[in-house]
Inverse folding.
C-alpha cells in the first residue's frame, strides 16, 4: 500500500511533542511491514539543508492568492533503507525558529498560510514524483487541510482512488483563526460551511479535518470515547458523536530501541525481569543525583512532565490546595520531579524543593534524567486531567516502575488497578482528579510498598512484560486503511 504521512513534525527532524515520535515510529513500522510509506513535513530553519538531497527543479505550489515557489529536499528516515522523508523548503514560511511559534510568540499569525502551503505542497509533491498514494494520512490540525483538499479539490485524475485518514493526537489544539485567512486555504467560498472550516465565524482547521476526512482515528480507545462527551470534547463532541462509526482509537506504541531497560544508554545499570539488581543501582544513582537521602528502603515516586494544567499539576503543586506538600510531610517517601512549563508551577516547585528534604525538583528538559527517573523510581505519578495516549506511563511499566494514574484516556487503557485481595494489576488508579484522591491513592501505593512486598514484586514483573511495540498499532492502522479502500 502507498501511504503519504502529512505532518508538521516528524522525529528526529522536527519535534515539539509526542506527535513527532508517533508519526515517525508508525511510518517505520509500516515500512517494515513492506508498505511504501513517505512523509512530508516543512523544512524548518533548524533542519540542516546540507545533510539533505535536493530534488531537481523548483516546485510551484498554488495556495489561494498566489503560486509560491518552493524547493523540495529529501533524505531517508534513520533506521530504514527506503523510507523517504520530503521537506518543503520556503524561506518566508519556514525560515525561522519554531514549528508553530516561539516561547514569546507561541502561535505565528501566518500559520494558516504556512500549513496551507504544507498541505497543497503535499499534493504537488506527489505530482512531481509521479507517485500517487492510496492513503493520505494527516496528523493534527496543522495537516487537517490535506483531507479537505482531497475531498473538495483533488479527488479526480490520479487521486481519484486516494482515501484520507485524520489522526487526532490532542483535541485541545485546533488551529482557530480569523476567517480573513480563509482565502489562503485555496478552497472556494462555497465550501466554507460544508468543509467544516466555519466555526463561530472563524476558521477551525481541526473541525474541517473532522468533517472532511474519510476516517478519523485517535491515539487510544478510551480517548476515542471520551472526546464524544461534552466534558472532554472541546466543543467537537457533537461532530465526533455524529461520526462515531468512522472514529477509531488505536494506542500509540513505544520506541523499544530507546525505552528498553535492558539496553538503555542513559541509565546507571541495565536490568530486566531476569536480573533486577540494576534497578536498585539506578535508584541509588537517582537519589545521589537529586541530593536525596540514599536509602534503598524509602520508596521513590517519580514525575516527568510538562508543567501544564492538562497534567494535573494544580492538584499536586498549587500553593493553597495542592497535595504534594502534605504527601511529603505525612508519608515516608521521596518525590522526584522533572518538568518545565507554566511559570507559577516552576516557582512553586523551587519553593517546595528548598523546604522539603524529601522533594527534589529539576526544572528544565533533560532526556538522560528522564530515563534515570523511569529506571530508578519505584512509582511514577501521572494524574493527568485528560491524556490522549500518554507515553510516560508506558515507559514506567516497561521499567517496572508502577504507575499511579488518573483513570482517563490512554492511562485507563494501559494501567490496571491493583487488587489487594488477589495481587492483580500493574499500577494504582484514581477515579476522580482531586488533591485528596491523589493523596489517598499515593498513600495506598505506599501502604502496599511497605506491607505487600510480594504483590509489588509480582506487579513489577507483570508490568515489565507489557508489549507496547509499534508493530501491534501499525497492523491496526493497516486494517483501517484496507477497510476504507473497500468501503468507499
Ligand atoms: P505530552 O506529549 O502530552 O507532553 P506524553 O506523555 O505523551 O505527554 O509525552 C511526553 C514526552 O516528553 C515523554 O517522552 C516525556 O518523557 C518527555 N518529557 C516531558 N517533559 C520532559 C522533561 N522536562 N525532560 C525530559 N523529557 C520530558
Amino acid at each position: 500500500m502507498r501511504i503519504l504521512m502529512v505532518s508538521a513534525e516528524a522525529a528526529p527532524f522536527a519535534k515539539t511533542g509526542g506527535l513527532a515520535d508517533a508519526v515517525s515510529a508508525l511510518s517505520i513500522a509500516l515500512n517494515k511491514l513492506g508498505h511504501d510509506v513517505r512523509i512530508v513535513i516543512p523544512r524548518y530553519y533548524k533542519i540542516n539543508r546540507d545533510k539533505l538531497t535536493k530534488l531537481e527543479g523548483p516546485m510551484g505550489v498554488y495556495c489561494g492568492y498566489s503560486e509560491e515557489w518552493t524547493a523540495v529536499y529529501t533524505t531517508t528516515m534513520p533506521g530504514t533503507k527506503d523510507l523517504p522523508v520530503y521537506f518543503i523548503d520556503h524561506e518566508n514560511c519556514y525560515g525561522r525558529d519554531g514549528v508553530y511559534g516561539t516561547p514569546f510568540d507561541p502561535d505565528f499569525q501566518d500559520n494558516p498560510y504556512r500549513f496551507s502551503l504544507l498541505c497543497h505542497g503535499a499534493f504537488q509533491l506527489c505530482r512531481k514524483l509521479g507517485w500517487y498514494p492510496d492513503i493520505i494520512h494527516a496528523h493534527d490540525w496543522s495537516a487537517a487541510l490535506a483531507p479537505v483538499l482531497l475531498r473538495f479539490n483533488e479527488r479526480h485524475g490520479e487521486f481519484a482512488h486516494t482515501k484520507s485518514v485524520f489522526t487526532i493526537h490532542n483535541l485541545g489544539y485546533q488551529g482557530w483563526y480569523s476567517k480573513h485567512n480563509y482565502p489562503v486555504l485555496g478552497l472556494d467560498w462555497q465550501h466554507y460551511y460544508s468543509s467544516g472550516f466555519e466555526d463561530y465565524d472563524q476558521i477551525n482547521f481541526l473541525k474541517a479535518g473532522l468533517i472532511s476526512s474519510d476516517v478519523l482515528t485517535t491515539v487510544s480507545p478510551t480517548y476515542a470515547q471520551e472526546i464524544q462527551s461534552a466534558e472532554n470534547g472541546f466543543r467537537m463532541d457533537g461532530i465526533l458523536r455524529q461520526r462515531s462509526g468512522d472514529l477509531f482509537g488505536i494506542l500509540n506504541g513505544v520506541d523499544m530501541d530507546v525505552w528498553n531497560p535492558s539496553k538503555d544508554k542513559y541509565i546507571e545499570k541495565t536490568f530486566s525481569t531476569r536480573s533486577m539488581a540494576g534497578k536498585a543501582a539506578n535508584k541509588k544513582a537517582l537519589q545521589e543525583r537529586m541530593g536525596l537521602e540514599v536509602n534503598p528502603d524509602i520508596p521513590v515516586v517519580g514525575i516527568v512532565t510538562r508543567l501544564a494544567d492538562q497534567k494535573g499539576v494544580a492538584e499536586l503543586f498549587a500553593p493553597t490546595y495542592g497535595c504534594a506538600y502534605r504527601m511529603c510531610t505525612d508519608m515516608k517517601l521521596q518525590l522526584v520531579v522533572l518538568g518545565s512549563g507554566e511559570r507559577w508551577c516552576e516557582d512553586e516547585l523551587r519553593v517546595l524543593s528548598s523546604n522539603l528534604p524529601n522533594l527534589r525538583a529539576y526544572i528544565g528538559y533533560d532526556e538522560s534524567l528522564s530515563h534515570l527517573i523511569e529506571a530508578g523510581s519505584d512509582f511514577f505519578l501521572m494524574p493527568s486531567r485528560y491524556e490522549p495516549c500518554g507515553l510516560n506511563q508506558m515507559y514506567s511499566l516497561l521499567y517496572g516502575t508502577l504507575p499511579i494514574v488518573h483513570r482517563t484516556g490512554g492511562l485507563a487503557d494501559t494501567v490496571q488497578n491493583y487488587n489487594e485481595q488477589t495481587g492483580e494489576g500493574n499500577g494504582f488508579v484514581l477515579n476522580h482528579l482531586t488533591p485528596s484522591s491523589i493523596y489517598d491513592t499515593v498513600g495506598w501505593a505506599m501502604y502496599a510498598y511497605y506491607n505487600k512486598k510480594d504483590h509489588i514484586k509480582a506487579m513489577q514483573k507483570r508490568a515489565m512484560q507489557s508489549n507496547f511495540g509499534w508493530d501491534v498499532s501499525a497492523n491496526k492502522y493497516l486494517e483501517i486503511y484496507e477497510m476504507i479502500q473497500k468501503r468507499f
